[in-house]
Every structure is written in C-alpha cells, then in structure tokens.
Amino acid sequence: MTVPAIRVEGLTKHYGKHAALTDLDLEVAQGEVFGFLGPNGAGKSTTIRILLDLIRPTAGRVEVFGTDPRKGGAELRRRIGYLPGELSMEGRNTARDLLTFLADQHGTVPAERIEELAVLLDLDLAKKVGTMSKGNKQKVGIIAAFMHRPDLLILDEPTSGLDPLLQQRFLNLVSEAKDNGQTVFMSSHILTEVQQSADRAVIMRAGQLLGTENVEDLRRRAPRTVEITFGVDIFADDFARLPGVRDLRIEDRTLYCTTEGEVDALFKMAAKYPLISVLSTEPDLEEMFFSLYGR
C-alpha cells in the first residue's frame, strides 16, 4: 500500500497562550494536488513550517512520505520543493547565480531547466535579487521550488505578487507537476487559485479544520452574487420562489440576488425578458466559508 505524501494527526501548536493550530488531522495522497485554504491567520503557514521541521509542534504526529520530518534529514528534504509565504532575498547575486547555487545542492538540475522556467515566468536571470520587486522575487522562489522536479511541492501563497497572466502560467506548472506524478500541497486564501488545479481542499479558520471538500463540489456549492439588468420592467414574483435564489431585490430594472447550487432556473426565467447585462461574482473565501459551515 502506498504511504500518503503527508499525514497529520492531532497536530496542535501553541505560542504561549495563543493556539495557532488545534487538533488538526489531514492526509494527502501521493500524486494529488491539495489545496490548503483559509483566510490569513488560519494556521496555514504554521502547518507548513511544522511539515518542514522549521518549527516543532506542541502535540500531534506528522509524517512526510511515511517519515517524521525531524528524522528525515537531507534525504527527505531533497524530495521536497518549498516556496515560503515570505521571501527574503538580498545581496548582489544575480538570480542566475542564486538558482545555480541552489541547483547544485540537488545535483540533478540542468541549466536548461532554469532557463526554461525563467522564460516561462518572464524573469531576467541577470538581475540582482537585492534590487528585485516582490513579484520578481516570487518568480525566483517558484523556479527554486519547481526546478528539480521534487516528489512533493509545498507552496505557501504561491502567486503573491504575480500578475494574472503569470498566475495562469504558474497554474500550468502545477498541472504539469500533477501529470508527472508529483504531489502539490498549496496554501492559499484565494479560492480561484486552486479551483483550476486542485483535486481536494481543506478549509481552515483560526487554527481549526472546518471541512474537507472535493474542489469541483465546492465550486458548485459556492454562493454567487448575481446582478441582471433587463430592458423592460420585470415581475418580482417570477423570481421570488426559484430554487437556490435568496436575498432577492429589484431596483428599477436590475435584479440582485444570491444563488446557491444550480442557476439553471434563474437564467431560464431571466431569458423570458430582454436582457441588457448579466454579472455573476463569487464571494470572498471567508464569506463562502461562513455560508457553508456557519459562523
């Protein structure tokens, strides 16, 4: 039987009287893309630092590929690519020098691989890391995590500072890693960041696990705010009793509501009137958590 890439049981971490994590259980299969979701302060970075043995838990058990991170040593670390949430890069070294130095620690990274990733992420390797913007430093961190094709990628808020085009290219890298059989453990507070690539996600808040979700099911269940502008006056009664529609109001010729689940009935009813515009937006992640699990 294949051991999980990550197994956590009863993980707890206290900083003095503050509980950063409380009795966390989770398991990530090898080859899975796993979203670790929650607002800032939910305990995501603390969990990641424990997985990497950068800090020690107050209680609980942690295994990475069946090994306690405290005992895995260099052999286990070579199997992991890590992108921290806060990158500290200073000095006069160029990005190429830094990445070449890091590649030498693994001994299995051809120079062409670094160049290929730099082109993909639009990174100037000749630039000194100490003069780089946050976004460019993030690109260096992504390349460092991916370049040796590790068995496990642990990524903490990976698209911070990236523009939308590069965010999509990053997600393409995640999909490529999955196709290669690599495991990806991705922390984020942005739901859309994991929707395109993750198989499952756990939802964290204030150091506690709220729930584990299949990402596609989570997307379908997520409430959306809908705004529809019509070319004629409409009758509120036509929409008031539709399944999945709540918080309905009509101002002038614009309908506002929140939908949960399927929206087929709403849009079929709307199509009976002349339409000017339709806008559908997902709520922020924390609002969605409250909607699904209660405050």
Task: Describe what this molecule looks like in 3D.
Keywords: Antibiotic resistance, ATP-binding, Nucleotide-binding, Transport. One of its GO terms (molecular function) is ATP hydrolysis activity. It is a peripheral membrane protein. The chain is of the alpha/beta class and about 300 residues long. It has two domains: about 210 residues, Rossmann fold (3-Layer(aba) Sandwich), CATH 3.40.50.300; about 70 residues, Alpha-Beta Plaits. It is built from eleven helices and 13 strands. The strands form three sheets. The chain has a six-stranded mixed β-sheet, with helices on both faces. The protein has a four-stranded antiparallel β-sheet with strand order 11-12-10-13, with no helix packed on it. It has a three-stranded antiparallel β-sheet with strand order 2-1-4, with helices on one face. β8 and β9 form a beta hairpin.
Question: What does the secondary structure layout of this molecule look like, with pairings?
Answer:
Elements: E1 6-15, E2 18-28, E3 33-37, H1 44-51, E4 59-64, H2 69-77, E5 80-83, H3 95-106, H4 111-120, H5 134-146, E6 152-156, H6 164-179, E7 183-188, H7 191-195, E8 200-205, E9 208-214, H8 215-221, E10 224-230, H9 237-240, E11 245-251, E12 254-259, H10 264-270, E13 275-281, H11 285-293
Parallel strand pairs: 3-7, 3-8, 5-6, 6-7
Antiparallel strand pairs: 1-2, 1-4, 8-9, 10-12, 10-13, 11-12
Which features does this protein show?
single chain, 295 residues, alpha/beta, Rossmann fold, Alpha-Beta Plaits, 6-stranded mixed beta sheet, globular
